[in-house]
Amino acid sequence: MAIEKENFSRRDFIKNSSMFAGGVVFASLINPYKFVFATKQPKGKGKWYGIGIDIEKCIGCGSCARACKIENDVPDDPFFFRNWVEQYTITNDERILVSSPNGGIDGFKQPVPDEDIYKTFFVPKMCNHCAKSPCTQVCPVGASFESPEGLALVDQSYCIGCGYCVQACPYGCRYIDPLKGVVDKCTLCYHRLEKGLDPACMMACPTGARVYGDLNDKNSAVSLFLKEHNCAVLKPQLNTESKLFYNDLSQEVH
Amino acid sequence: MDKIQSLYEALTKVDGFIYPNELALNWDMLIVMYPYITGLVAGAFILASLNRVFDIKALRPTYELSLLTALSFMLVATMPLITHLGQPFRFYEMLITPHLTSAMAIFGFVYLWYLMVVLLLEIWFDYRYDMVIWSREKKGFMKFFYKALTLWVSDTSPESRKTDEKIGYFITVVGIPSAFLLHGYVGFIFGSIKANPWWSTVMMPVIFLFSAMVSGIALVMFIYMVVSYLRKQKIDMNALDTIAKYLFYILIIDFTLESLDQIHRIYEADESFDILKILVRGKLFFTFFIMQIGVGVVIPLATLGFLQFKKPRVRIRKLIYWIISICVLVGIFYMRWNVVIGGQLFSKSFYGFTSYKVNLIGGSDVTLSLLWFIVPFFILAFLLWLLPPWKKAPPIEIPEE
């Protein structure tokens, strides 16, 4: 009799633990499978933001990067940026020199003498707000997400600071905030967009090299920019469907 | 803000151009320890299953030792990850709201499955009978403790032992794919990052899996020799030779896979090849060619290969095995290092490199990494005291059906 009872208890133990394990698995599956990409572009209605940058117009003043740091409380140190400018110099002997001292905030110096320069230009960089963003795909808790307007955002009260998204971003647009211990990135100044204001970098650009707007609206600034220029995105081979379009993008730019 | 200070220092050591945010290596030595420790778990378990499922009788003396080793390391396997988080106290969010498109989100579940369902259950069924016996022999608190461990099941009949044996066998069968899953999965966390060409390869899970087996087997070999030495017991040379034989075979597979990966990379020579070439020949020269390949593969392969043909005296063989197991453990550590740290040293712009300096003194990542590597040995010592494999009752004979 005693033996039987004990056998039962062992069986019960297995039964209960497998029920528990099954319950945990089931609970995690209730959320329907969205295995590959986090967001889908809304069809027809709603805003779907895109950004255009005209490399021809950029003078490398760094105003955008400066404005971004001030507006978004980005740490002052020269290795945390939501937005920065790179200087490309291709010399006559075909060397490619790239630099971005302090993200371009303090301006640039050209170390190569003029006669040795084949061509030189500035490339402002910021989050590409990809439609198939690899960063939001890998976030283990869903703190990185895409807004319905197609902006990759971070819920900092939820982020665990694992850094996986930083690894997954092919463009180096994310950093871990050293004080908060969570990830930070460009939001296209979502807090300003909500109030009907333009993003800080767009406001600060003195030459109008940056435009943004609703890609669904064919008369928006960015749609017209795409219509009038031959644009390209960075690293198209990675199929991130970047929504940051560059006019006059040189093939040396990665 | 020591970290900021060290970043300013790193800023002076940037080679070429990197994206400004790439200066900080977000995954430091703790993330090197994570696949390393998880690999040791998977490897040790697979060695145990060689005995149980594949019925390699020579490995019987190390069966329980392998399982307890796997458990000791499994208990701390998540700690490097959690202590590395920017917000360590939010780690549970990964379990309660996993984001299913993330390769990392499922780790908690894979981990719990492996720990709870495979390792703990297998060890419990393996030791249940002995724990009942021990609970009868001991007094006071230990009596209660063993009783608690048996979950108050006190059946010692031969039938119950046969049932234990059968269920244990079944769990091991489930455990093998689970161990494969556990470590293949860790490889996928890296292999699925398309932004990083040094990581992004379908070979990554397979390479991680075989390197895990190699390191786990070497670890059990090492621990078996040390434990026997401490207990002043004779080492079962047959068992040791068999372990060495499997280490040799799996090391060959592991090295073949890793070579295949590199050869493929070199021959395809895609856009990332130029920067990776400079990386491997420069910043990773010591850790890749000397430590990972030289110490971790060439020396062990040559020595173990030699031992397949010629067997020196027992004393010398023991010494060789001891040194080889350390070589392999060091080599696999550097393999993880080259993946994790190496993958962050070059810029995704392909125009330059950042640097990583190991602060041996005062660096929190190094201190914590060492801690998480040492703690499992203490856990193992405790487990060996609590559940000594050498005091187990002889296994019950199950007649062939």
What would you note in describing this structure?
The complex is a heterodimer of chains A (254) and B (401). With 254 residues, chain A is α+β, with helices and mostly antiparallel strands. Chain A has a single domain (49-247), classed as Alpha-Beta Plaits (2-Layer Sandwich), CATH 3.30.70.20. Chain A contains seven helices and eleven strands. Chain A has helices at 2-30, 63-71, 134-138, 164-168, 190-194, 200-204, 221-228, and strands at 49-54, 83-91, 96-99, 117-126, 144-146, 152-154, 175-176, 183-184, 210-214, 231-232, 244-247. In chain A, β7 and β8 form a beta hairpin. By secondary structure, chain B is mainly α. Chain B has one domain. In chain B, 70% of the residues lie in helices and 1% in strands. Chain B is built from 15 helices and two strands. Chain B has helices spanning 2-11, 29-52, 63-76, 79-84, 93-96, 107-137, 140-149, 158-191, 203-230, 237-268, 273-281, 285-309, 314-340, 342-345, 364-386; strands at residues 15-16, 352-353. Chain B is globular, with a radius of gyration of 23 Å. The model of chain B has no long low-confidence stretch (mean pLDDT 92). Chains A and B meet through α1, β3, α3, α4 and β7 of A and α1, α6 and α8 of B.
Which sequence of SSEs, written as H and E, runs from N to C of chain A? HEHEEEHEEHEEHHEHEE
The figure for the number of domains of chain A is 1
Q: What is the CATH class of chain A?
A: Alpha Beta
Low-confidence stretches of chain A: 1-6
Q: From the helix content, strand content and strand pairing of chain A, which structural class follows?
A: alpha+beta
Question: Residue-averaged pLDDT of chain B, rounded?
Answer: 92
Helix content of chain A: 25-40%
What's the domain count of chain B? Answer: 1
How many extended strands of chain A?
11
- How much of the sequence of chain A is in beta strands? 15-25%
Question: What spatial form of chain B do the alpha-carbon principal axes imply?
Answer: globular
Instruction: Give the neighbour order of strands across the main sheet of chain A.
Output: 9-1-11-10
CATH topology of chain A: Alpha-Beta Plaits
Please name the two chains that share the biggest interface, counting residues whose Cβ lies under 8 Å from a Cβ on the partner chain: A-B, 69 and 65 residues
Helix-residue proportion of chain B: over 70%
Strand sequence of the main sheet of chain B, in spatial order?
Answer: 1-2
Beta content of chain B comes to under 5%
